[in-house]
Each structure stands twice: as C-alpha cells, then as structure tokens.
Design brief:
Chain lengths: ~230, ~230, ~230, ~230, ~230, ~230
C-alpha cells in the first residue's frame, strides 16, 4: 500500500478539511455545514440531517487535460459523488445530526489511481472535523459518528497478480477492479467489483476481500492518528 | 424470485429488441447497430467494436411522476447506464465485433424494483438478437458472445431476512441491497453491495452471493429458452 | 384507415393510461394528477385547473436511432407537446376540474406515421380514465369532459391521391399534410395543414376535411367503446 | 387590417433585411447567406439549398419583461421558427438555390399581436432581397422564387365577431385564432386554426378563410410595391 | 467623434427606452421596473433597490451572422452586461430607489464599434426616463440620479495614431483599446484599457484620458438635451 | 503587500505548474500544451499559436460554499478567464509559439482577495515553465516571452485610505477597486478601475498607479527568482 499523508484544516474557512494523499494521488476534502436539509429529508420530519458529496477532478489532474464540465458533471463524477455520499452517510447517525446538511467536496488535485477511495478516506476526516467543531460550538451534544470507515481498491493485474491500492497504471491494465469500504471491525459498508477482462471466481473474491481488510486497517489507523481520539 | 416474461422483437425497426418483465417490473430493451465506433475505440486501431447502454425511466413508471430530465440524465440514470454497458461488454469479444457500436436502450415502462438487473437481463437478449441478425446478414462471421450473463438483486429486509429479487417495497426498506451479475458457471462479472442501514459481515455476504447464483441460473435458463440455442 | 387498438390501464401506478395503436404506430399515453396548478393559472384565482402534455419518442421508435435529447426536447417534440395539451384542454371544462393539473405523457414506442394524432386520441382516453378515477374517489363531483375529441391526419400523396391516416412512408412523400382534431359533431378543435410541395386549393382543402371527419368518427367510436359510456 | 410599413435594407451588413410593421407590431427580418447546407440536405446530393428561420422576441417587446432564454429558445419560439422556415421554403425552388443556406432571423422589437405573420411577411421580403443580391453578384442565374406569399391572422372575438389581423388584446381574448399563409392566387401554403374556447363549424372556417384571403392580397400588394417587380 | 442620435420612448410598453446611435452603431436600450429585489439586496434590509443590465447582439448585427446563444450568453456578452450594470448603478443612489429592480436591456441592432459605450450612454437615458416615470406616478419622491454619466472608447491605431470613438474597423486593428466612463465633472466611474499589441506608457494613458473626457462631454451634452433638464 | 510564495511544478503531469500564494490567497496555476489551435487562429494561417485561460474557484474557497457551476461558468468567472488569457497573450510572441495552444487553468484553492491578480502572476510562471519545457524538448527554438508581467490590485478603502494588494475584507468595503497589469519597465498591459462608491479623480488615479507599479516590481522580482533567469 502506498504512503498515506493527511494535512488537516487545509482551508481556513471550512468547518472541516484535509488534503489527503495516497502515494501520488492527492485529494482536497472539505466539509461545509448548512442549517437546512433537502426537501426529501425535510418530509421525514424529526431531526434528521443529511450528508452529501461532490467529487470533481481538476482539469489537469491526469496526464491529459480534460474539460471541466466532463470532470465535474459527467456520468463518472456523478457516480463517484453518489458513492462517497452513501458511504459517509453510513458512518453517521443522521438522526443525531439535527436538521442540517454537511456537503463534502472532494476535488482531485493530482490523480494516480484510487481517487474515489482517497476521497472517502479524506472525506471521513473532513466530516469528523466538522462534527467536532459543531460539538465544540455546542450546536450538537455529541459527535454522531458510529464508527471509522476506510476504503481501498484491490485488483488483479498482470495475469493473476493480486494487488492492493492500485496506481493509475495498474488500474488501467487491471483484469478485476474492486473498491471496498469497511468499518473498524471489518464489516462492509459497500463493495463494488468489476471484471474488466475475465470473470472472476468466488475464491478470488475471497482473497481480494482479505487483502482489502488489511489495507483498510492501515487507513483507519492513519485516520485515528490524525483525528486524535475523536471517537471512542 | 418473481416471474420472468420475455417478448422478443418488440420493435420492428430495431436490430434486436425485447420487452423483459420480472414481476411487475417491465423494461423495453432495444439494440441499435451503427457502423462506427467512438474516438477512444477508434484510437486503438484494429477491429475493436463497442457496446454502450442508455437507461431511462418513463415519467410515470413509478408511483409518482418525475421529470423526464431527471429520469434520463440524472446521476442515478447515468450510473445505471454505465453499469449495463460495462456488464454487456464483458459478455462480448469486442475484437470480433468489428468496427461497429451497438447501443442498448433500456426504457423502464413500469418500475417495481430491480430495474437495473432487468435491464441487463433484457439487454443481453436484445444484444444477442442483434448479433444473430448481423451474422445472418453475413456482416460478422460468428456471434462474438463469450457466455450468457444474468443479473439479480439480493438483500436483507425486515430485521435480517435474506431475500432474492427485491420488489420496490422491499428495496425501499432494505438494510442491505446488492446487485450481482454472473456468468453461466457462476463467475462474477460485477457485484455491488451497499449497507443502507447496518454494515454487514462476510458471512452475510457469502449467504447473499449463494442466493444470487441460484437466481441467476433461473435468469439464464429463461434467456436460453428465449434465444433458442444461439450460443453453444 | 389503419386498425385502432386500445389497451386500457397499461400502467398500474398512473391515474389513467392506455397503450394506443394505430396500425404499426404505438403510443403509451399516461395521465398523472397533481394537486397544484402552474403560477399563471394560480393567478386567475377561482377553481381553474390545468391540463398539459409531454410528447417524446423512444430512441429507436423510428427506423434509425436518434438521441434522447432531440426526441424529447427538440423543437418538433415541444411543438407536438403544445398541440396535444391545447387540444385536450379544449375537451375539458377547466373551471370544473378544480385546482389541479393533469399531465399527459405520450411516449411513442413505435412510430409509423400519425404519432401526434395517436397521442391525442390515446391521451384523451388516459385523461378520461383519470377524471373517472377522481370522480370515483369523490374528489370531483362530475367528469368535466365537454365532448369526445378525435384526431386524424389526411394528406395528398403520389400525384394528387388523397389519403386518410398516413403511414410514415406516405407522410415522408406527401405533398400536403394535415392534422385535424374534431368533436363528435364535426366541429373543429384544431386544424393544421401544410403544403410540403405544391400549394393547394380551397377545393382540395374541403375534400380533405370531409375525409378527416369520416376518420375521426371511427376514432371516437373506438374511444366510446373503450371508455364504456363515461360521457353521456 | 392594420397599416403595413416596410423599411428595406435596415441593416447594412445583411444580404437582405427589412423592418416590417403591422400596426404597433414591429419585426426586424434579416436574411443571411452561408455557402453550405446542413447534413440532411447535403445527403440528398445535387444542388439543393436550404432556408431556415429563427424567431425571437426582445425581452421587453411585450407589456411585461420576459427572460431572453424563454423568448428565443422556449417551445413557442421554436414552433414559430419552424413555421416561418417551412412557409418560406414553400416559396422557393430549393433546387435552383444551389448549395447554400439562407437563415431568416425575425426579431420582434415590439409585439402587439400577429408577430408570426409579420415575421413571415417581412421574412419574405428579406429573403427576396437576398436572392436579388445573389443574382446581381451572378452567384445564381435567376431568382428562384415561385410566387409571393403572404400571411395574416383571423379570429373570432367578443361573442362571434369575425376579425382580420388581431391585435394582442384581441388575440388574448379570441375564441378562435387562425394563421393563414397563401400565395398570390389564393392557394394555401399553411393554415393553422385553434379553438381557444368553443369548437367552430365548417361554415365559420369558410368565412374566416375568405377574410384571410382579402387580407393576404393587401399584404402581397405591399410586398410587390416594396420589392418593385422582383418577380414577374 | 461620430454623430450621436437619440430616439426616446422607442418601445411603448417599457418604463423607459431609447434607440441610441453613434455613427453606424445602433443599440436599443430599454428599462423595465420590477417591484422586487434579488436575494442579496433583500438581505441588506432597508430600502435598497437594484439596477442590472443585459447586453446582447442580434445575430446579424455584425458583418457575419453569429449564433444567438453566443451573442447573448457567451463570456463577452456577460462581461459587458456586468460593466453596464456596474456603471449605471454608480449613477444612482440605490438607497433612494426603494425596493425595486430596474433591468436595462441593451440589444445591439447594428454594430460598428463602441457597442458597450453606446449601451451605457443609451442605457443611462432609458434609466433616467424610467425614474422620471416612477416620480410622475409618485412611486418615488425624487429622481435618485447622482450625476450624468457618459462613456467613450479611445485607442491607438495605425502606428501610434490616438483616436476617439473607434469604429469596428479601427477597433479590430487597434494596438490599445480603452473604455472610459466618467461623470459631468470628469471623475471616473470605470476605466478599462488593454494593450492588444504593444504595452503602453503612462504618458500615452494620460493623453488618451484627456481625449476621452472631451468625448464624454459631448455625450453628456446630448443626454442633457434629450432628457431636457431631468437632473438639476 | 502580502507575502508571495511560489511552489513550482506542483503537478507532475502538467507541462508547467505552480501553487501561487499571496497572503491567504492560494491559486493553483497549470499550463497544458495541445498541438492544435482554435479555428479563428487556424484561419490566420502561418505559425500563430494561442494562449487561453480558465479561472474557477473551488466550492469552499470562500467563507460560504457556492455551487460549482456558478464558480466556474458564471459571468464573473468568464470575465476573469478572459482577462487572464488576454494578459498572458500580451506577454508572448504568438507567432513564435507555433501552431499550438497553451491553456492556463487557474483554480482558486483559498480566496482572500486578489484572486485574479494572483492567477495572472502564477499563470505567468506556469506558462514560462511550459515554454521552457517545450524549448528543452526542442519543439520550439527559443522561449517566445517578450517580458515579465505582474499584476496587483490597488484601491481606496475606509474613507480615502489608498491601499495596495487588497484582502477580501478590504475589497468588499473598497470605494475604488483597480487591477493593474504591467511589464518590467512599467508599461501597461491592462488596467481596470471601478468606482464602487464615489467616482474618483485623475489625481487619485495617478497615485494608485504609482502604488501599483511599486507592487508589481515586487511580484516580478519573485517571478524572476522562481524562474531563475529564464528570460534575459
């Protein structure tokens, strides 16, 4: 697994933020709090809050420049935005958040594979920092995090070699590409696996999931260190 | 599992089409052949073809009317379109397709859960019929299908009850929601699982994957019957 | 005139719906009721309701695939949507509808000429069924339909041959193309005639209008049969 | 009928232009020539040309300001653009135009009813001037106009009063609203009639068509005078 | 400087309007009053009003036709719209305007250089007429204009020749292009200067500003004459 | 003036890049080279190249989150993009660039006033690095830079206090706000000044321009140090 680097509070204005690096991949993750919820949450009544995410790549984060529109509004960006939001919502007791929305912006500064997992990992930190700030300001009574969540990619590359945390080069040539999001205790928040080339067996799946858990434990260790015991 | 119904060649103009029903869910799947490939396939040179998909819901396919734009261009629709395209490409040897694109339109006429898996199942039939037509017209020498592929949803509902092929009501209240796409021999093309409520364990995952395979075998049996031995 | 086929209540969720076929042309017409009116109707005060329509073609309803955007948002689709809405509004006493909007979605499943007239004919049935449902639910006291309305196309084709209910092939080669919408008693709701080739005389117009009325009587007979005396 | 006023060559850059007024309604009609045709005309081969139109209203041409987008791209604007284009194409032998496109921009400066008919009438003049210029420059051998075309609105207003050339106030309260486009000899290019309130009878239609022809003769007289015998 | 021509009250519906010509450049400037303010002004509380502008060119105002979208929504049009709005706001005591918005539409009918300065000059007149009307209707107590404002372009053309009020031909070949907006007493509202070719010195800037003031005095004289002592 | 910090080659993929900070304002400036020119440059023939820019702010770069669309496509962003492109083009001999386009992306990571001037200053460095790389790769013979260019803002704040390099707080309350872009020798590339409150005199303008030049000399010194004698 590539080296994790976390720079907390990268943006002075934001309620929570971090620059999250995993090898050469670098994502700026920023949490913004708004004191309102979207209509479909409003309709539920009660004190439900909401967490949503927006993922975008800067035009030259990759080896070739792409247009801003495609990188922030295209199908791929929307799909990843939805995945990040869904994963982070699973980490939070929305009922204890109160009637507010936290938006996690994940802007990819430099892309070298694993931008969606880096966004979830860094997004979790930005989210936790924002919740911590809300608690310090006595806007919420307790930090409504259920557990840490961590994400990694695993895959099969180069005729059957199983690898953890794929770089762009490995990802582009992978036969199988999986993204796994888990809790501290190894339970699944989300798993997405795709056979880019050959279909893969249950046995292969099991091995990849084991590798993923080993990686996720490292991610969560780094998060714990950065967040300094925010969550008991 | 709900009842599968397949009406082949539903549209007279299209190269391949079927109305695919799974219980109350009804999707019109249509394959259109064009004698050109997108630029990024063109760049590879050779005789590579391409398969892509567009998923949309009719405005009143659900219990409440939604706007056309959201139902055909929104993030969810784009995400599902990409899933269908990716799954069907995995079933085809694109190199043997020749420089042509097959677009699979999946229009949901009536939605009662499982529209994405129904789209893949019906989309496979439309695709196979289009390939059969190309072969009959001697445009291609052989039908470049590698294997049948089938898709089902599985989930956990109502305090831990594991179920196959979720209806809309079950889906909306599920704790875990998975979509599995497999080949005849039970290998994975794609798996996507999400914990909507509680994170789930590896043991639960294994049970759900077993259930899914049982369902997919029924889907593939129905496909085989409809396609009448198109694939040896 | 081509054969009319009406399948009522095609969609279980909708307040009113039918699959309307005229020869090879097949349009799914669906009525959705919402308990609000657009601002410009709201401004009138009172108990005015509103009826509007959206016409779209599925991507492969024609012999060549077209893009979804063009088929549902382009100038032609918007023009036809406006025609359908205007015609159906003329059939209803909007003042007796109450402050609600009925949206008629007309999705062309298969196109072989006459899709706009088929949409009006099927749209009328979907609308009538929705009104009937509102009455049964005691939301309205009486069904506010003024009269049946029927639509047909007439044209001049192949050096002066006058024809009723043009197919796509006839339509594409027509010198004159008219769409007529009439009531049971032969009064005009709307008429639109275009000389695609040679301008046409008043005498020709009169003959075409006579043919149209004969066709519209058949349409209204089919509607009456399907609706089973909904309107005295 | 309201007073017609024609100011030829209003824009110095354009191949043909006129400011066309009909009472208080004022439309700037401008013809621009481009030496290429759209793909669907290109496909026909030969020397076919094309004529198209764009209709838009300035934001404050009406009594209340509307947004530019709605006034130039909305359904109504697109429908009228298509009508103008279709009508003007009917006046020209496109085969003799050669491989070029003439775009007629009709920008409504001041609106007081009848903007679509004023656009067609003024658009015809702009088109004729552009064709005359092409002939003078020896780009075409003869002016490929088949005949003059004129347009008027007729309607029923105020409990059955039949009127010619409706102002905005009359139009907004009309029971029947028709737009008629005819040639010098009284043949139809296009007719569009709508019952806004009560359906209307064949007898009423006949009377309205007679009134329309009387008005169109005045329009064509004004065009002939302005164009000074351009067409034998 | 080219000849200024002002036709007041060009549009009967608008609160204020004029056709402003400067040589061959011709801009229709129209003021529309709405009894509400945008949210960011609303938030200030009090009786602040707002003035905004929209600049657009008609498709054939230039020597070649351009698309409507580009001419009214493109970057250049938006930039000029912002400049016009900012300049006119500087002429008004917004606090005395009351909670209303005046929108100035500047539609370029014919372009021969200097369309943005003509828009500001004509826009000032339309604005002043609208304010006069509000005062006459006793909606405001006094006309909240602080001073006249006038705008001209100056530039360097043809190897160092300094010129006032550039035509399109001069503008396209200018080495330096400046737009200056001043009050009666020669104070600056806005200045924008660009070196299209060679950078220019402070000395050159001073000379251009002197020329500009001479031109602006002529503009303000014409405005005063047209507005007939509206402002003491 | 606030402290300038330049981190060169921030993105490994790009031809040239730097993170440019001016106090709390931080802009990532990236140059991308493409071997083609836009059509209007192509039409000139010869070996003309092109330089263009795109300016955008990240959603939470300011104290409140804004939507991505507004921050990268709105009128303000387009206006600034055009200014950056124009200024950088003035620094380059486009004829010696050859038939290629350099796009400068300026993404504001953190905004505290002066983002447009920081974008020009950092954009110049990214551009120079890209040109240096092209020369090292022997794609161009010499670096076609004419001179350094530097940009600063100056303004009047708090009842007449003249200040250099405004922060967000100062900018929001400024009476006059100017952006000046100059060369090493103090010649103007562009100047834009706006009276937000009171119009300002020629005397004030002169003082502000002097302050600006002093600031620009500091900017250019920092650029020279970072670029290490790239330009003689």
């Amino acid at each position: 697994m590539r080296k994790i680097k976390i720079v907390k509070n990268y943006l002075k204005h934001a309620e929570g933020s971090c620059m999250f690096s995993m090898g050469e991949t670098k994502v700026l993750c920023v949490a913004s709090v708004e004191e309102k919820v979207p209509p479909f949450v409003e309709h539920k009544g009660g004190t439900h809050g909401w967490i949503t995410a927006e993922y975008a790549m800067l035009p030259r984060s990759c080896s070739e420049r792409s247009s801003r529109g495609k990188l922030s509004n295209g199908g791929r960006a929307q799909e990843i935005s939805r995945l990040i939001g869904r994963s982070l919502r699973a980490a939070v007791d929305l009922n204890k958040l109160g009637k507010r929305t936290i938006t996690i912006d994940c802007d990819v500064i430099r892309a070298d594979g694993g931008t969606r997992t880096a966004s979830i990992n860094g997004g979790f930190i930005a989210l936790a920092l924002a919740l911590q700030k809300l608690k310090r300001q006595k806007i919420i009574k307790e930090i409504p995090l259920r557990d840490y969540i961590g994400a990694v990619s695993v895959g099969i590359y180069d005729n059957g070699k199983k690898i953890l945390d794929l770089s762009a080069k490995e990802d582009n040539n992978a036969d199988v590409d999986m993204n796994i999001i888990m809790t501290t205790s190894g339970k699944f928040i989300e798993l997405q696996g795709t056979a880019e080339g050959e279909p893969f067996s249950k046995e292969t799946l099991d091995k990849l999931l084991n590798m993923a858990y080993a990686g996720i434990k490292q991610v969560i260790d780094a998060q714990k260190k950065a967040l300094n015991g925010i969550l008991k």
